[in-house]
Design brief:
- The chain is built from 21 helices and 24 strands.
- By secondary structure, it is an alpha/beta fold.
């Protein structure tokens, strides 16, 4: 029984929290609603800082395992892996917290309320923070997020391991430069069909303890003070009982950016009145005059404090050390050999093989004397980690991973090739000042591995140091700087070449897709990333990742960045052919999906079980992702949408029977009022290793199996 189901314990915590809050003065209660809540010694309440980050590892608090960035983890298409990673992160968080508490350290980034995961929909590849998310699909985002939260929060009936936080609620995905004043206009249909389902899954399935509001407005209401989002939907409709935190300094945007309030007191009152409980910022310091002026009631403040102290009690923060089973986790759990091994395995599962013409990969070490490794990301640590990261005890870049793997038996030649985005490597040099070096080492090598892409200096959050382009957003989908020129230089050498891409978002690598024989998309693969890439390139494992985002051919295939309507966006609604589709990824082996069938001929409230046989028909062991897509065969409906998933690993020649349950919701769509319904008519269910679209069929050489169902009578959910 998970904590959210232990109603007796929750009632006990809430009763204790209410009794504790009743003993506080108004001023004391208000200060407990700040992210850096002070101690109240007379009540035995220690200071607590609510602000901590754990996007892909414990962040900003010293040594911790740095897992692949969130977008890479999403590419695993593996909910069970997400739970294992979440569990590992929460183990390290507890280990660090226990040690820090023992030494009196209660600073920022030292608590157990982790402001992760980011489950916003990556609707446009220009958004700089997209690599924090699980991609463009609402269903996949929900599954990855549910797994992560379950791992983070644990399964003890009395205590949370850590408190996870679903952010940023809601309809938030750039532009970063406008986020403090931007109003995302969205239809009810898109709101409930695309932007909210992952949040609902984390609230109602995973029991996420916290929700963070977004900076922007939605249809005129600032998210951190939105009656529609926080009261009507989150609490009343979904039954959320945890606490809500504002994004950092977002409440002051009410009056300085959105201008829906006149001053700080009105902004704080609006947020609290609509259910925002803790303020990352200082606006709630103005709650005292807001109460005195009648802008917000003390009862609303009491309720916020009860929710906050309930969370602290669930975490065991008001109990003596040793009360929670998690208090026994030693600091030795941090950066342990087991953590490093899990990190390596996770990194391997994130890599997506986009092209492998002529079976160039995997490379055969025994047939190589000299390997060239070139490119600005070959030895770039920042291209391993993404943002919101911890500090690893060792980072293994792609260059280092290849050097370690090949050892002394194969010569490795290296050139940075070009700057990540500038025309030359030094201020006094001519553009393309490493061309001769690249040409020289290509001439000496048997194969060339080219490492290109992005790093967090080119995509990230507004205000982050180094994000000098469009406040962290991207203005182009092309390779930046001289990278395309470098790629063409290597290709002109005539040597076999492999393109290794590191980025947190889709790149329009159209030229490479036509001219480069092998392309491996590696995202920001974490501190062990270089080792994972090397072992994959040389066949120690087979790539099994799938794209959680569409790779577009150009910006011309996208609507304007500020348009939040889903028409024309993502694989679910685009009508043009992409460069590489959502759900796509190759392997070093081949698989066959056969005998697909459904347990029912008709769609009812019970849902449907879909069965198939999966066989490894090639010569290598590998993991794969069985994907189930549903298409409502009616005019005006989206393209086939991912609604079922199963990861499995098979040896050569091995077969497995797979059953995937599709609930009735898998067949539902929202009407113009946002109400979810299963319409009457025909449905196609596609079972295979990719989408059923023409581009996926062309790239993979096979198509999913199709099962047809009917719904005789429409019904609402």
């Amino acid at each position: 029984m998970e904590l959210r189901e232990n109603t007796a314990k929750l009632k006990e915590y809430r009763a204790k929290a209410r009794a504790l809050v009743a003993q506080m003065t108004l001023e004391e209660k208000i200060f407990q609603m700040l992210y850096n809540a002070p101690a109240i010694p007379r009540l035995g309440i220690p200071a607590y800082n609510w602000w901590n980050e754990a996007l892909h590892g414990v962040a900003r608090a010293g040594t911790a395992t740095v897992f692949p960035q969130a977008i890479g983890l999403a590419a695993s298409f593996d909910e069970e892996l997400m739970e294992r990673v979440g569990d590992a992160i929460s183990t390290e968080a507890r280990a660090k917290f226990n040690a820090q508490r023992a030494h009196g350290d209660r600073d920022i980034y030292k608590g157990l309320t982790m402001w992760s995961p980011n489950i916003n929909i990556f609707r446009d590849p220009r958004w700089g923070r997209g690599h924090e998310t699980y991609g463009e699909d609402p269903w996949l985002t929900g599954r990855m997020g549910v797994g992560f939260v379950r791992g983070m929060q644990g399964h003890d009936p009395n205590f949370l391991k850590t408190a996870a936080c679903a952010k940023h609620f809601a309809v938030h995905s750039g532009p970063e430069a406008l986020r403090h004043e931007f109003d995302a206009a969205v239809s009810k249909k898109d709101l409930f069909e695309t932007y909210l389902p992952a949040f609902q899954a984390l609230v109602q399935e995973a029991g996420v303890e916290a929700v963070m509001g977004a900076y922007n407005c939605v249809n005129g209401e600032p998210c951190c003070g939105s009656k529609t989002l926080l009261r009507d939907i989150l609490r009343d409709r979904w039954g959320f009982a945890g606490h809500v935190v504002s994004d950092c300094w977002a409440v002051q945007d009410f009056h300085t950016g959105h201008r829906v309030t006149a001053n700080a007191a009105e902004s704080a009152a609006l947020a609290v009145s609509n259910g925002c409980d803790v303020n990352c910022g200082v606006s709630f310091m103005h709650l005292l005059p807001a109460v005195r002026q009648g802008k917000v009631t003390e009862a609303a403040i009491d309720e916020a404090c009860v929710r906050l102290f309930t969370t602290r009690m669930k975490l065991g923060l008001l109990e003596p050390a040793g009360a929670s089973p998690y208090d026994a986790i030693s600091y030795t759990a941090v950066d342990s050999p087991a953590m490093r091994e899990l990190n390596l395995q996770a990194a391997k599962k994130t890599l997506v093989l986009l092209k492998n013409e002529g079976g160039l990969l995997p490379l055969d070490k025994s047939k190589l004397k000299t390997v060239a490794v070139v490119g600005p990301n070959a030895n770039n640590r920042r291209a391993l980690i993404g943002n919101y990261e911890g500090t690893a005890s060792r980072y293994i870049t792609v260059l280092e991973g290849i050097q370690d793997y090949l050892g002394d038996g194969v010569r490795v030649l290296y050139s940075e090739g070009c700057h990540l985005y500038k025309p030359s490597m030094t201020g006094l040099s001519q553009p393309d000042d490493r061309r001769a070096e690249v040409q020289a080492i290509c001439g000496e090598s048997d194969v060339v591995i080219v490492c290109l892409g992005l790093d967090p200096s080119l995509e990230g959050e507004e205000g982050d140091e180094g994000n000098e382009f469009a406040s962290g957003d991207r203005e182009s989908l092309d390779l930046p700087g001289m990278q395309q020129t470098l790629l063409e230089t290597v290709c002109a050498s005539g040597k076999p070449m492999v393109l290794v891409l590191q980025s947190g978002s889709a790149l329009a690598v159209n030229w490479a897709a036509e001219h480069v024989p092998a392309i491996l998309q590696c995202w920001y693969p974490g501190a062990q990333g270089g080792r994972a890439v090397a072992e994959t390139l040389f066949g120690e494992c087979s790539p099994e990742g799938r794209l959680p985002v569409t790779f577009y051919r150009s910006l011309e295939q996208l609507p304007p960045f500020t348009d939040y309507a889903m028409a024309g966006r993502t694989y679910r609604y685009m009508t043009e052919e992409p460069l590489y589709p959502f759900g796509y990824g190759l392997s070093y082996t081949t698989f066959a999906v056969t005998d697909a069938a459904a347990s029912e001929d008709a769609v009812t409230e019970r849902g449907v079980d879909v069965r198939c046989t999966v066989k490894n028909t090639g010569g290598r062991a590998s993991g794969t992702a069985v994907q189930v897509y549903v298409k409502a065969e009616r005019p005006g409906t989206p393209n086939a949408q991912l609604k079922g998933l199963k990861k499995l690993t098979l040896a050569p020649g091995e077969a497995a029977e797979v059953t995937i349950h599709l609930p009735a919701s898998a067949f539902s769509l929202c009407d113009e009022n946002g109400d979810r319904q299963v319409g009457a008519g025909r449905y196609s269910v596609f079972v295979g290793l990719s989408q059923p679209d023409s581009r996926s069929r062309a790239l993979t050489g096979c198509a999913p199996e199709r099962v047809q169902l009917r719904c005789e009578r429409p019904f609402s959910l």
